[in-house]
Specification:
By secondary structure, the protein is an alpha/beta fold. It has 33 helices and 22 strands. The structure holds a DNA duplex.
DNA sequence: GTAGTTTAGCTTTTT
DNA sequence: GCTAAACTAC
């Protein structure tokens, strides 16, 4: 018999073996949802002898997909690889690649990420001569995105007077036009954005019934993870696919629906029964993860919501410890207190770093925590945030690769045409775009014949660039992804220009590119890799966001991440930081009761990550947008019965000192002194700018006297490394303090001062 | 016209 | 705190 069935309780077993017909598993937090899902797939393969190729299992994140794949493999062996298991986006993209020609796309279509989409929208808005303040890319994209998630195409949107009225009353009457242009440009570029992957899959199935039949036939069994987070597009596609075999199993927890902002519709799970009257519902209500205190406090929070399915989450675990409250004065102190608490608990209980996690509402909160952990030498790992693949230099190299594969990829071309600088500036690009639209040919074709349209140096630069791309594009079928990537990195001059940049940030960028290259190497040299080609690599990378590369250094580390990223994970000790009214709930989510309920579900998700103990921390002041702001305790803390809470010792030491006005006083004392009146920046006539020779600024230290060609003579106050930049605060005589970015500043060192 | 600097402005969460 | 746009100098 299957070993995995043995470790299941009665309900879990029921959810596992009930394979025929529609089934909904409502799984409370920590109830063994992943366990059931994997057991179910293993059961299908081993017991029911179902061909793995005929099983489709969809998740939301790559992380969840990978974990599930590994667990199934442990039970059924390498045959597990044949299961169609992946994120909605990656599975549908796979189908779209196969069937691309049916909807007029090339099978090697590019995938635009959010940055690409916004950039394209920006240029469209500019070309249409619209005010970029009423039509901000953010607003336009979210409108387009939500339309696509509701299966509304650009044309339908444009033709429907209802949407136009909506947009007109929002003072954005031309949104429909922008949408249509955007869709056209994406199509011409052979590119899909994230939402297109869903929308086009839907259109493919609806316009080509033979294709739909093929996949309906193929997917004999379907499993959907995190069903509460599906949007209309996802739900409709699943439903269409399930028509023939009707073996659809959805797993979810309405209490953990936290993606409405991206179109998720909690009603998909609340109303699922209406679409499938003979639905079997299994509720997994026993929590195996957390202590009684945690389960009860979390239940109390989620009980405040109206929109939810009835269930009774309970646990047989010990009562456990109370929720610790940590109160700090600033975000930096919050970091210190959290780090100190982790250190103390770790030493006292002989725990590992990986038993701890720090969760926050926004990625920007990570900085203070990181600094504090670094100071006490606690190793940590950050998930999400500004991911590796979003770094400029990484995106640049990937854009080169994308463009080599797809010469129509407009956004990729925009990135690389003058990066590194090769003398093809905005006005020349403008010219070529004009020529292209006049002749009805693509920008790429213009570039290949630049001599006919441009003059002199610019034409040469363009042709050289185009020639380089052509040469390498010819090799795509002969060489693997790594060979192509390292060749283009060298020949484009990208590596060289980064190598020559000797600043701290230049060095980091160079290393990032090298890291990307070795990542590609790992991809091509993986023995299980059937297709090491560039096209395949790009398809893989486009939808793989962050986790992969960070997971490689799998040492024993504390986890730092947003609450969203923590869904599905568990830790012994969980610190939820920044429980403040202007942060969590997010002020942007207080528009409606439903929004607030989503924030409350988010809080619920955070609380239920913990096995042993939760710490909630807040501070009375916090740096935001570079300024110190006063904060209030979040309403969510007030929603927890005080019987579950206690103030931590560390906090009391600080709270003793606090009086009622302390926060205000503190902020006032921290407020930087009013900057001196800006003097008009006239170059000092005594400085001969022509002869000005900058010194090597890596030598620069605080206390030195320096000369700037424009600002004159000043004293270096501090040199600080702020993120990717190195900055110097310099007090110039007569001008006051100025902060200069050292990577650009031209400074002459006059004295090496008191060293 | 292009490259080099400085400043303004904006940040929820993710595929 | 970081990026893109605006500005300035070549």
């Amino acid at each position: 018999m299957i070993s995995s069935l043995d470790s299941l309780n009665e309900r879990q077993r029921e959810a596992t073996v009930n394979t025929e017909g529609p089934c909904m598993i409502i799984a409370g937090a920590g109830a063994g949802k992943t366990k059931v899902l994997t057991a179910r797939i293993a059961y299908l393969i081993q017991e029911k002898k179902v061909d793995p190729f005929k099983i489709l299992a969809l998740t939301f994140t790559n992380k969840a997909a990978n974990e599930m794949k590994n667990r199934i493999e442990q039970v059924v062996g390498s045959i597990a690889k044949n299961v169609w298991l992946g994120t909605f986006h990656s599975c549908f993209a796979r189908i779209l690649r196969i069937e691309a020609d049916r909807i007029g796309y090339p099978s090697n279509f590019s995938i635009y990420d959010t940055a690409d989409s916004k950039s394209l929208l920006k240029s469209i808005i500019k070309e249409m001569n619209l005010d970029d303040k009423t039509y901000t890319p953010n607003v336009v994209l979210s409108r387009i995105s939500s339309a696509k998630n509701r299966l509304i195409t650009a044309q339908e949107y444009f033709n429907n007077p209802l949407y136009r009225e909506d947009d007109e009353s929002a003072m954005k009457p031309r949104l429909g036009e922008i949408f249509v242009t955007y869709a056209k440009r994406c199509f011409q570029a052979g590119a899909m954005d994230f939402d297109d992957i869903l929308l086009n899959t839907y259109l493919l199935f609806n316009q080509h019934l033979d294709v739909l039949y093929k996949y309906q036939e193929r997917f004999q069994y379907m499993l959907i993870d995190e069903f509460q987070d599906t949007n209309l597009a996802q739900y409709t596609i699943i439903k269409d696919l399930a028509v023939v075999h009707n073996n659809i199993c959805v797993v979810g927890d309405d209490a953990q629906s936290i993606y409405a902002f991206r179109g998720a519709n909690i009603r998909n799970i609340l109303n699922f029964e209406k679409d499938y009257p003979n639905l079997v519902i299994v509720k997994l209500e026993q929590n195996y993860r957390s202590t009684q205190n945690i389960v009860e406090a979390a239940n109390e929070i989620i009980g405040k919501n109206q929109l939810q399915l009835k269930k009774n989450v309970w646990t047989a675990n010990e009562r456990g410890e109370l929720i610790g409250l940590i109160r700090a004065t600033t975000d930096a102190e919050e970091g210190r207190l959290v780090a100190a608490s982790i250190f103390e608990i770790k030493v006292q209980n002989q725990l590992r770093n990986e038993d701890f996690a720090v969760l926050y509402r926004t990625n920007s909160q990570s900085r203070a925590i990181e600094e504090a952990l670094r100071k006490v030498n606690l190793p940590y790992r950050m998930l999400g945030g500004m991911s590796f693949y979003q770094r400029k230099e990484v995106k640049d190299l990937l854009a080169y690769l994308r463009f080599i594969v797809n010469h129509n990829d407009e956004e990729a071309l925009k990135r690389i045409i003058n990066e590194p600088k090769r003398g093809i500036g905005p006005s020349n690009i403008e010219k070529m775009i004009l020529v292209a639209s006049d002749h009805g040919i693509s920008l790429w074709e213009v570039m290949c014949n630049a001599k006919n349209f441009l003059s002199g140096r610019a034409a040469e630069a363009v042709e050289e660039f185009a020639g380089m791309i052509q040469v390498i594009a010819l090799e795509v079928s002969k060489k693997d992804a790594y060979e192509i990537a390292s060749e283009i990195a060298k020949r484009s001059g990208l590596l060289k220009s980064l190598y020559e940049d000797k600043t701290v940030e230049g060095l980091a960028r160079y290393e990032n590119v090298q890291e990307l290259l070795s990542g590609i190497k790992a991809f091509t040299s993986n023995p299980e890799q059937a297709d090491p080609g560039l096209t395949n690599f790009l398809q893989d990378i486009a939808l793989a966001t962050n986790s992969e590369i960070t997971d490689e250094d799998g040492g024993d580390k504390i986890s730092l991440m947003t609450i969203h990223a923590a869904k599905g994970l568990e830790f012994k000790y969980v610190y939820i930081v920044g429980i403040e009214e202007d942060l969590f709930p997010s002020p942007l989510m207080l528009g409606s009761k439903e929004d607030l309920e989503e924030e409350r579900r988010l809080f619920y998700v955070a609380l239920t990550r913990a096995k042993k103990k939760i710490f909630l921390s807040y501070t009375i002041s916090r740096y935001r947008f570079g300024k110190l702001k006063q904060c209030e305790v979040s309403r969510f803390i007030g929603e927890i019965d005080p019987m579950y809470l206690h103030m931590s010792h560390a906090t009391n030491r600080y709270t003793e000192k606090l009086n009622t006005n302390y926060a205000k006083q503190f902020i006032n004392s921290m407020r930087p002194m009013a900057s001196p009146k800006r003097a008009k920046l006239q170059p000092d006539p005594s400085t001969n700018i022509q002869a000005f020779q900058a010194s090597d600024i890596t030598q620069l230290k605080s206390g030195m006297q320096v000369e700037h060609p424009t600002f004159g003579i000043g004293n270096v106050i501090t040199i600080e490394l702020a993120g990717a930049h190195k900055k110097a605060r310099i007090n110039f005589s007569g001008l006051g303090e100025k902060t200069l970015l050292l990577s650009f500043a031209k400074l002459k060192i006059l004295s090496s001062s008191k060293e």
